[in-house]
Design a protein that fits this description.
The chain is mostly helical. It contains eleven helices and no strands. It is about 80% helix and about 0% strand. The protein is globular.
């Protein structure tokens, strides 16, 4: 009887192992090494993914996760920023709050929201308790692409196209997002500095291409190798103008920035993300290309 039980247990473990391998291969067929990589490459790939699956199971069993989902947290932070916009505008327009204080408060909320969204993929939120380090990094990088697309298309592109309307809209709620930054954060947006115009025109184009890449990823479930190359180019294109943006103003002695609060909350913190995150995404995309097999034409 004992021998029969041991034999049945062994058969069960073998079948479970085969089912695990079959599931991994069926769910990750696109990432499976090609035949030219040989059986050793395939075994290494399967072994690594089995370890990732085991780590995910351990994390799930450990529990202790939050009841809040990633999407819910992102929406909550986005609503916080949107709600703070009319509140800060009304405080400075109707309730006697110093306008510099009100605008600095709004951009402080922006800084907190952007920092919080980048941290969310690393938290043990509902639905992502079992994510591996690599999966969390990918989630943060994809999230950052959304985070550059939105301001590029909703703040910088309108400034490039509707500059005169925004200038005429000073004091109005619809133009407050621009004036809250320009008034104390960087007056070059008011004078329409030609170098800044070139930078923001480039940023608008980056926003459009980012939107296309995100749409393709939504359709296919992943970035293709060519799309990763484009993404790396976008990150380089986003990083360099940011360096020039800071350098030109600091070199001249910050003539277009008013007050220490405006310098910190608007000019530095609100833009420093674009000095750090492009490198994170660039390196992540490069590692993806190195680890993947070459794509063949269909």
């Amino acid at each position: 009887m004992a021998r029969q039980f041991i034999a049945l247990s062994r058969d069960y473990r073998v079948k479970s192992f085969n089912v695990t391998i079959g599931t991994l291969i069926s769910q990750n067929a696109a990432a499976l090494p090609r035949d030219k990589d040989g059986p050793i490459g395939r075994r290494r790939w399967i072994s690594q993914n089995i370890r990732d699956e085991k780590m995910s199971e351990i994390a799930l069993k450990a529990g202790g996760g939050s009841a809040i989902r990633f999407q819910t947290a992102v929406i909550g932070l986005a609503v916080l920023m949107l709600v703070s916009l009319p509140i800060c505008w009304a405080a400075g327009t109707y309730y006697g709050v110093d306008k510099a204080v009100a605008s600095n408060t709004f951009w402080s909320v922006f800084d907190i929201v952007y920092t919080g969204i980048l941290i969310l993929p690393w938290l043990k939120l509902k639905g992502q308790e079992g994510l591996t380090h690599a999966q969390r990094l990918e989630k943060m990088c994809v999230t950052w692409i959304f985070m550059i697309m939105i301001p590029h298309l909703t703040w910088e592109l309108p400034w490039v196209v509707f500059y005169h309307a925004i200038m005429a809209g000073k004091g109005q709620l619809w133009a407050y997002a621009w004036w809250a930054y320009m008034d104390g954060g960087d007056m070059r947006y008011v004078t329409r500095d030609v170098n800044l115009l070139a930078m923001e025109s480039c940023a608008s184009l980056i926003g459009m291409i980012s939107a296309y890449l995100l749409d393709r990823r939504h359709v296919t479930g992943r970035f293709s190798n060519n799309q990763l190359l484009v993404l790396m180019a976008l990150m380089a294109a986003d990083f360099y103008p940011t360096v020039m943006y800071f350098y030109t103003e600091f070199y001249l002695g910050l003539p277009d920035v008013k007050g220490i609060a405006g310098l910190i909350t608007k000019f530095i913190i609100a833009n420093v993300f674009w000095l750090v995150m492009p490198w994170v995404v660039f390196i992540w995309a490069g590692r993806q290309l190195i680890q993947r097999p070459p794509e063949t034409a269909a």
